[in-house]
Hints:
Chain A is mainly alpha-helical and 184 residues long. Helix content of chain A is 77%, strand content 4%.
Amino acid sequence: MRQITTVLRVASSRSMFLLPSVLICLFAISIGAAWQIRRPQASEKDEVRERIAVLIHNALEAGNGSVEGVRTWSRVPPSPGAVEEIIKFGDDAVPVLTRYLDSNNEPERAIAVEFLGRLGGERIIVPLRKVIKNDSSRSMRIEALGWISQAPWEQASPVISEAADTDPDPKVREAAKEILVKHK
Amino acid sequence: MKYIRVGLYLVLVFSFAPFSVFFSSFAPSGAQTTKEPMTASQKKAEDTASKPKVQNLDFLIAAPYWCVEKEFVSTIEMKNYNVAEPLTVTPILYPIDGPEIILTPITLKPSETRLLNVNDALASYGKHFTVGAAELKYNQLTEGVFGANLTVLNAPRSLIYNFQFQLPEMSSKLEGLWWFYDKNTDGFIAVQNTSDKNVTVVPTFYARQRPYQLQLVQLGPHKTKIIELRRELRKLQVEDINAGGITLEASQSGAVIAGGGLASPEIGFSAPLRLDDPEMQAMRAKRLGQTLHALGVMIGADDPMMSMGLPSSSRMNPIINVRNVSGETIQVTPVFRYQVGNTTKTFALKPIQLSSQQLEQVELLPRWGSQIPKSVSSGSVELSYTGKSGSLLASVTSVDQTGSYVFDAKIDNKLASGFHGEYWSTEGDNDTFITIKNITDKPATAWMSLQYDEGRGDYELPPMVLQAGESHMIDLKMIQQEGMPGASNELLPKTAVYGGMKLREEPAGRHFLIDAVVFNPKTATCGVCGYGCLYPTSINVPGGTYIVALADSGEIIAVNAHMCDGSNQTGWACVSNFSTDNTGIATVDPACQSHGFGISSGSTTIRVVAPDVPGPHCGEQTLSSQRPVTVLPYAFKGISVTQTNLNCPQGYVGYGAKVVYQVIRQDGTAILKAGMTPEEIVSSAAGGFSDYRPFATPTTTDSAGKFNDIPIGTCFQNPPSNICLDVRQQFRVKVPTANGEQLYFLGTEANRRDCRDGIKVTITTGTDTQTYTLGTVN
C-alpha cells in the first residue's frame, strides 16, 4: 500500500514538470514552424537569383559560335520562355537583375538591361536610371534609354530629359531627344 | 443699306410660302416663245413632200392637247436635262382631224430649255389644223434626260391649260376628277393613243357615287379624241351635277394618256383636269405614305412682303376636291400647314368619310382669319387617308372671288434624287414662283439652280436647309431684279428671261416635293411647270484597286453616282451597303463611312449595293457596284543604320550597328501604328535560333511604326584579320487588334555581313532592296 502511495507521489511530483515541458515543446514547435514558414521565402529568393543567373548564362551562351575556327559571339534576343520567367518573378527579379548592372562583363549588363526593360513598370526606373547615368558604355546607355521609355512616362521622362541635357556623349543625348520628341 | 435690303429679300425668297397654280394664264405666247427657225432648204424639202425622217425612236413622251384656235397659242417648253451632251428631239404633231406632222428635229444643247411655238410651226408647214396632240421622240439610253411641257394659252380671255409630256401610263386605267366652278364652267378631256395599234377606251363618269358609262372611244394609232363634259352630262341627263369622277379603261396598257381642262371663259376661269394612273399613285404611296401633298396653296389676301401682284381686294379660296377611287370607304383628314416666322403650324380640318366613288369638296377660305391667321397667304395642304394605297384622288385649286385668278396645285407627289424643271420665265410681266417642301421628319438641304441662255448660263442659289415639314418659296423675278448673289456670288442676269431649273438633293434624295408656276398678274394666267425626276443610272466605287495593309484599315470607301442627266454625285456611301466576297482576306464596315480591313494577304472584291434608291419613271431601283481589294503584307523598311558599340565580351571584338526600321505597306507607305511587336529568327554559319523572338528595343513600335534593332553585329575572339560572317534575319510581326493580336509573316529579310571592322546590311522587302555598308567589309 505504501509502495502504491510512493508511486503516486512520484508521479504527482513529475507531473509538476510535465506542463512546462509541454509548453516549451509547443513554443519550440511554433518557432520551428514560423522558421519553416519563413525559410521557404528565403529559398525562393535564392531560387530567383539562381534561375536568373541561369537565364543570363543561357542568353550569353546562345550567342556563342564559331566561324573559320574563330569563336564568335553575338547578342541573341532572350527566348520567349526566358522573358516569361522573368516577368513571373516580378518585383523579386529587380534586385537580382540590378546586381548584374555592376558586372564587368558588358554582355551580362546588356542582357540584364534588356530583362529589366521587358519586365517594365515603375520598378525599372531606379536601376535603369543608374545605367543611363553611370554606365561607361555609350550603347548601353542608349539601350537603357530605349527600355526606360516603356516605364510610366511621368517617371521615365525626367530621366530621359536629364540624359538629353547632360550626357557627355552627343549620340546618347540625341537618342534621348528622339525619345522625347516621339512622346510629345 | 444695300446689303440689308439684299438680306431682307433673301429672307423673303427663302421664307416659306405656297406656290402653285395661280390665275389661269401667263404671258402672251408671242413674248414667251422662240420660233424654231426653218431654213429655205428645209422648206423646200417640205414642199417636195419628203418628210423628215424620225431619227429618235427609243423614247416617246406625249401631251394630249394643243390648240391654236383663235386667240389660243400653244407652246412646247422642252429641256435637255443632260448637263454634258446635246440631245436631238423630233416633235410630231397629231391634229385631231388630219395626218401627222413630223417637225424638223431639234437639237438641244446641254441643259438648254427651248420653246417651240406650235402655232408658228403649223404655219410654217402651211397647215391649218386647230386642235391635236403632240409627241416627242428621242433616242437615249434612259428616259430621264429630257422633259417637256405643253402650255395652251389664251391671254386675252385669261385662260390657260397645261399638259406635261409623259410616257404612256404603265397600266390601262386612268382616274381623274372634275368640278365646275360655276354654272358656266365646262370641261374637256383629251384622250390620246400613243401606240401604233388601235385602242378602245371605256370612259365612265362617276356622279353621286353612281357610274355612268359613256360611249366607247375608238382610237386609231396616235389618234386623239375629246370628251366634252357638259355634253356628256346632258346626254346622260344629269346636267345638274357639278362635280364627279372619271375613269378611262383602255383595251391596251401602256398606250393611252389623257388630260384636260376646266374653263368658265366669261370670267376667265380655267383649271387643269388631270388623270393619273392609280397603280403609279399606289407605288408612290409606298415611299410617301398615304398622304397627298398640295404645295403653294394660296389663301386669303396677297402677301405684301412677297406679292404676286394680285388686286388688294382679292381673296384666294382654296377649293379641295377629294375622290375615293377604291371600292371601300375611306377617311380623309385634310391639314393646312403654314409658316409663322420660323415655325411651321398646322390646322387640321374635320376628317371626311368617303364612300366608294364619293367626291366631296371643302373650302378653306372660311377658316382664314379664324383658325388660320390672316397674316398667312399661303401654305400646303396635306390629305392623309385610310384604306388602300392610291385610294384617294384630289385637287386643290385656289380661286379668287372673281374666278379669274386661279392657282392650281399639282398633286403628283413624286419623290426622287432631285428634279429638273423644264421652264421658268420672267419675261415681261411673267414671274415664276418655285415652292419646295421637305416632307421628311428631319432637316434636309436643297440646292436649286437656274439654267438660261441655251443652257450656257447657270445660277445656283445658296443651299437651303428646310426643317421637317417646312416649305420655301422662291421668287425668281425678285432674285433677278434685286441682283441677289448666288452660291458663287454670281447673278441671274436681267437679260435671262427664261430657262430651266434643277433641284439637287442629298444622295438618294426623297426629301422634297417641288412645284412651280409661271404666272402673269396682268393677264391673270398661271401655268404649272413640268418636272422630271432626277435619279442615278449607276453607282461606282472610285479609286481602282483598294489597297489595304494587313491588320490595318484602309481609306474611307467612297461611292459616287452617275445621274440620269449626265452629272455625277458624290456621297452615296451612306445610302449603300458594303460587303466583301472573302472575309478571310478583307472585311468592310457594312454601312456609312466604310473602311476596308485587311485580314490576310490576297485579293478579293468589295461589293456595294444601294437598295431602293430613286429610279426611272420616278420609281425605285437597286444599284450595285464593286471594287477590287488587295490586302498587302507588311514589310520592314530600313530607315537608318548607324554604328554603335557591340558590347562584346572581353577578348572579343566586332563592329556593331543600330538599325532603325519602319513598318510599311508593300506600296511603301508607313503604317503609323504603335504597339506592333516585330519578331525575328536568325541563322548563320555560327549558329542562330529558329524560334521567332521579339528583338526590338523597346519591344514594340512607336506611333510612327518605327522600332530599333540594337545592336547588330558579331563579336570575334582575337580575330587575326577582318574576318566576316554572313547572318540572315527573317521577320514576322504581331499586330494588336480589337480581338487580341494578329500574327503576320513578312517577306522582309535582312542579310548581313558582319565583319570585325565593318558591317553590311541588305534589307529586302520583296519590292525594294536597301543596302547599308559601314566600316570595312570584306
